Amino acid sequence: MAVYTEVTDDALAGFLEAYDIGRVVAFRGIAEGVENSNYSLRTTAGDFILTLYEKRVDPAELPWFLGLMEHLAAKSLPCPLPVRARDGRNLNPLAGRIAAITTFLPGIWPRRPTAAHCAPLGAALARLHVAGADYQAERVNALGPAGWRPLLERCGDSADRVEPGLGDALAASLDGILDQWPQSLPRGQIHADLFPDNVFFLDGAISGLIDFYFAATDFFAYDIAVCLNAWCFEADLSFNITKSHALLRGYQSVRPLGAKEGAALPVLSAGAAMRFLLTRLYDWINTPDGALVTRKDPMPYYRRLRFHTQTTSATDYGL
Ligand SMILES: Nc1ncnc2c1ncn2[C@@H]1O[C@H](COP(=O)(O)OP(=O)(O)OP(=O)(O)O)[C@@H](O)[C@H]1O
Ligand SMILES: N[C@@H](CCO)C(=O)O
């Protein structure tokens, strides 16, 4: 469920007066997503998404995210284009929140990703990296390696309530990852959360990349590592090298990887597994029973982490 903030018909009509997108034809809340309130909005001018940013999003960061989407959309990447009001603003107050309207993207996200999805996914990720190169502004990746130890410490002893010994195991694993973390690799704007539910497909081709609210300036190959974790493990948590080979082949059809990037894939993938494990663990511990949000199980990312700590080179990923 992701409609935390209700929008009345009157509030919506007042909000839309600032825009040039006609009159409302249909308006309904979207159940998917957990971070923000999303509504599907149809007007006489077409289909849009209305997003009200909830408490976990820092309003000061919104112009960076929306600017990146605008930049990428201008380079023909299929990502939401923020709609500007007549005065040029793309962020405006609504129902006590800051809100934005973006273009609606057609397609559906793959519930069961296959290798046939992974090749175009890789190519789209590389296109995103290339297209973002001249978006000059920098955003520190708050959920990058510097953020992982503080996050683990905030989980404290509660990690052991999820699985006995988990806290110590993660602390040891984190030491190893941080020791081996590359000093420098090609970097730029990354999506940092390109999971299957953020990628829409239509007739076998990618029709939408959404949810840029974890995007940041970081290693391109780390973004690939996020995707290897999110797309290339089966339901039984076995690694599917056919999928990762397809993903890497798709990526390299647009942006070939350097030798240092390939060599870093094991540690970057372990780091990416750690990132999602830690945020899920934190939420698991801190989301009260009965909350509206469905908690995501952290343990599948522990299994992925253990896989990555046993890999030694890019060939283990089919490169
Ligand atoms: N531009 C778009 N075009 C079409 N549908 C969209 C668009 N943006 C969002 N949606 C719909 O809204 C849902 C939730 O969006 P999103 O994933 O951005 O939510 P969130 O709560 O911000 O993020 P999270 O996935 O991190 O919980 C998507 O699954 C999709 O159904
Ligand atoms: N994609 C993330 C949620 C948003 O960071 C996860 O599955 O844990």
Automatic annotation (TrEMBL):
Keyword check for Iron: no
EC number(s) given by UniProt: 2.7.1.39
Alphabetically ordered keywords of this record: Amino-acid biosynthesis, ATP-binding, Kinase, Nucleotide-binding, Threonine biosynthesis, Transferase
Lineage, uppermost ranks: Bacteria, Pseudomonadati, Pseudomonadota, Alphaproteobacteria, Acetobacterales
Species of origin: Acidiphilium rubrum
Domain Aminoglycoside phosphotransferase: 27-257
Catalytic activity entry: L-homoserine + ATP = O-phospho-L-homoserine + ADP + H(+)
InterPro entries (alphabetical): Aminoglycoside_PTrfase, Homoserine_kinase_II, Kinase-like_dom_sf, Pseudomonas-type_ThrB
Enzyme's top EC category: transferase
Protein name per its UniProtKB record: Homoserine kinase
GO MF term list: ATP binding; homoserine kinase activity
SUPFAM superfamilies: Protein kinase-like (PK-like)
Family: Belongs to the pseudomonas-type ThrB family.
GO BP of this protein: threonine biosynthetic process
Superkingdom in the source lineage: Bacteria
Classification via HAMAP family: Homoser_kinase_2
